[in-house]
Design goal:
Number of strands: 32
Distance between the termini: 14 Å
Structural class: alpha+beta
Largest sheet: 8 strands, mixed
Number of domains: 3
Number of helices: 15
Strand content: 15-25%
Helix content: 25-40%
Bound molecules: 2-acetamido-2-deoxy-beta-D-glucopyranose
Radius of gyration: 33 Å
């Protein structure tokens, strides 16, 4: 009978949880601790009930019994404290960080109330721990008084505080499945968390992880209070104050009701809460190339050339607009012409257009990937920064006439120049976690290495109950190479972006079964598009072991293509550099879309850059969790080119809250 009433949380998992002391455990670990504490309490009762009442009341045993109880107490305490240290500190930091965001809302008041009650219970609990430490000199009457206060049905008693704590987070009263929980504090906090990416960025976790954390923090406090009450009844009975059978029953019933309500709300809440995690932009002036973003370079870049060099006849009979796809044909007048004074475009020229008959051009420094800083027209308008003076020497270029009748204008074209200054490669090799050693993927980031973009994976050991052994977290070494090496092949080892092969498919690949986690990632080419594929491996939740990873793993991708009309194109028009935006990027793409790499705005940047940029910040939820999906998306602001960035979908813990209860 005892075993059926309140080992509620234990039943959720349905199995004896192994105690993984020492390892930093996250996620479902609170469940394990609750189970373990509950079991320890039960054992303590056995100890008392084995002793005949007569012996207890005889008094001689009181000291030794008290010590035995306090031994149990310290065992429980060690468990609770360990978990608390690891997990709750994390949560407190989150709450602290989010305080600013919640400022001026009534949420902050409600959080304070919750914190006050938590503090009160913790104080009591610490007091009990002190007793335990000074057990040898402790008068039995002290303990008796303390425990009496705990179970007293007065308005200031522990049991009242516990009720209030619970009510402050989950609302009061019994919870019916169809009841509206949307006004409870936990739901409001989660809703507010979901409402703006700012929260996710500060807390570095998905909304579902956040909801669970809020639950876990309070569950731990409730557990402490509950444990103190059990302990108090034990002491009361042991000291011969009575049996308290009915009181215990009531107390346990209430405890169970609260747990039911909390879990039911959590279950419903987590079922509706997002599991996506991605990285916000760094602050406006904190974008650092090579640290927070990387660029594809010189894919299609603004380039000025005289018409006479755009055709093999060295004529100027056409107009700039007639040259859609051509080559530069040397330099007609190397001495006095612009073409002799600028590095040539060693590639094809596209989409030429006339801009003005008199130009002042500021060449960029030799080093970088730009060709020009700005171009001024004769009429005073300009392309690119109208800004501070030119660091190098400005160059003039004006239309001229040949044979009087032929006017030779300067055209503005897009130069596609593969070569040492053009980083335009994407790795096509698969990257997989070390699944034979039970490692799974816990994070991802883009890396540009030896001019090739890779998706690099973070891996860690999966352990029981959806937890990660955080001491094993590591980034997988890059499988990198030099594209010019003899045995490295285009469209096999890597993909080369070009004018007609520069699309990236934007997808989120998620396993739809609950027992699968991400163990790998790769790009493939579908209709010349870069297309993401994610590898999944089944695992056993209670053992934390991957199930036959060699044979049961599979790759999943989105086969929809623009050819069959199922994939929609997102277009960037006249976009400025994303690093120039005052406002942080927001996700702008959806799954089943794609976007091309394009040149930046002619007007704002002389089309010198390739957009979007690529966000290379690591996408790693804290605490580490298994992932059930991974994707590539585009984030930005209208008018700016934005970034391509990876995102992850955290493992759905809600599924395990709803497993059949025993
Ligand atoms: C206390 O409980 C025991 C068994 O649990 C029972 O035998 C005994 O009669 C009870 N005593 C009182 C005073 O209720
Ligand atoms: C050229 O690049 C080097 C190293 O990358 C840097 O130290 C130097 O300042 C650059 N020069 C100019 C003119 O930008
Ligand atoms: C790649 O190899 C070429 C020739 O072997 C070399 O010149 C170049 O520096 C290498 N590039 C990188 C990024 O290692
Ligand atoms: C966690 O990783 C550490 C270091 O690799 C290892 O010693 C420990 O046994 C692991 N814990 C579990 C539960 O596997
Ligand atoms: C995933 O969902 C699709 C349809 O949405 C279904 O056909 C397929 O069987 C599901 N796969 C698994 C492993 O559940
Ligand atoms: C997980 O492993 C345990 C222990 O080996 C086994 O009893 C259980 O059936 C497994 N669960 C599933 C879903 O395979
Ligand atoms: C997607 O295409 C690949 C390769 O053509 C094929 O193996 C796979 O079965 C396809 N997947 C779906 C869901 O159609």
């Amino acid at each position: 009978m005892r075993f059926t009433v309140w080992i509620y949380l234990f039943a959720i998992c349905g199995l004896t949880p192994p105690l993984l002391g020492g390892v930093v455990q996250e996620t479902m670990d609170i469940m394990q601790t609750i189970n373990h504490v509950t079991k320890t309490i039960l054992k303590a009762w056995d100890m008392i009930e084995d002793v005949p009442l007569a012996e207890i009341t005889a008094g001689s045993l009181i000291y030794s019994r008290q010590n035995q109880l306090l031994d149990k107490m310290s065992e429980v305490n060690a468990n609770i404290l360990e978990l608390e240290e690891q997990q709750v500190r994390n949560m407190d930091l989150t709450i602290k960080a989010l305080r600013d965001v919640w400022e001026k809302t009534e949420l902050l008041y409600r959080i304070s109330r919750l914190n006050d009650l938590t503090t009160l219970i913790n104080l009591r609990y610490n007091q009990l721990s002190d007793f335990e430490q000074h057990r040898d000199t402790l008068e039995p009457i002290t303990l008796l008084k303390f425990t009496q206060w705990n179970v007293d049905p007065s308005p200031n008693s522990l049991s009242t505080q516990l009720e209030q704590l619970h009510a402050s987070l989950y609302g009061s009263g019994p919870f019916a499945a169809e009841q509206d929980y949307s006004q409870t504090l936990i739901a409001r906090l989660t809703e507010s968390f979901q409402a703006s990416p700012e929260h996710m960025c500060v807390a570095k976790q998905s909304a579902q992880q956040f909801a669970f954390k809020v639950f876990a923090k309070t569950a731990l406090t409730e557990l402490k209070a509950y444990f103190m009450m059990e302990f108090s009844w034990m002491v009361q009975r042991q000291m011969g104050r009575g049996n308290f059978t009915q009181e215990l029953l009531l107390m346990r019933q209430n405890h169970r009701k609260r747990q039911d309500a909390a879990l039911e709300i959590l279950r419903q809440l987590m079922g509706k809460t997002g599991r996506r995690y991605w990285r916000c932009d760094p602050a406006k002036d904190r974008h650092v190339e090579g640290e927070t973003f990387a660029r594809v370079t010189r894919l299609l870049q603004g380039y000025v050339e005289n018409e006479i060099n755009l055709n093999s006849d060295q004529s100027c009979w056409n107009s700039c607009d007639d040259y859609h796809d051509t080559l530069s044909n040397g330099c007609y007048q190397p001495e006095e012409d612009l073409c002799g004074q600028q590095p040539p475009c060693n590639g094809r020229l596209y989409n030429c257009a006339f801009i003005d008959s008199a130009l002042t051009i500021c060449p960029a420094s030799e080093n970088g990937t730009r060709r020009y800083e700005y171009i001024h027209y004769g009429d005073g308008t300009s392309l690119g920064g109208k800004s501070a003076g030119c660091k190098s020497k400005e160059k003039e270029a004006a239309s001229w006439s040949r044979w009087v009748v032929m006017r030779c204008h300067y055209c503005f074209c897009l130069c596609d120049e593969p070569g040492p200054k053009s980083d335009r490669y994407f790795n096509l090799r698969a990257s997989m976690s070390d699944f034979m050693r039970n490692r799974i993927v816990t994070g991802v980031r883009f890396v540009k290495s030896r001019r090739v973009f890779h998706l690099q994976l973070q891996q860690a050991q999966l352990v029981p109950w959806g937890a990660i052994n955080t001491s094993t977290l590591e980034w997988l070494p890059l499988d990198d190479y030099n594209v010019s090496d003899a045995d490295i092949r285009n469209d096999y080892d890597y993909h080369t972006l070009g004018p007609d092969s520069r699309s990236l498919d934007l997808d989120e690949i998620v396993a739809n079964a609950t027992d699968q986690v991400v163990t790998g990632v790769r790009f493939r080419i579908i209709n010349k598009h870069l297309n993401l594929e994610v590898r999944f491996t089944p695992f056993n939740f209670s053992t934390g072991l991957l199930v036959e990873p060699q044979t049961m793993s599979f790759w999943l991708g989105n086969n929809n293509s623009h050819v069959d009309g199922k994939r929609q194109k997102l277009v960037l028009k006249e976009a400025d550099l994303p690093t120039a935006s005052e406002m942080p990027s927001l996700p702008l793409s959806q799954t089943n879309q794609y976007m091309d790499f394009v040149s930046s705005s002619r007007q704002k940047d002389v089309a010198q850059n390739t957009l979007p940029f690529i966000d290379i910040q690591e996408v790693v939820p804290h605490p580490a969790v298994p992932l059930s999906g991974l994707g590539i998306f585009h984030k930005g602001r209208s008018g700016y080119g934005g970034f391509f960035a990876p995102k992850v979908v955290t493992y759905d813990l809600a599924k395990h809250l709803t497993e059949p209860r025993k």
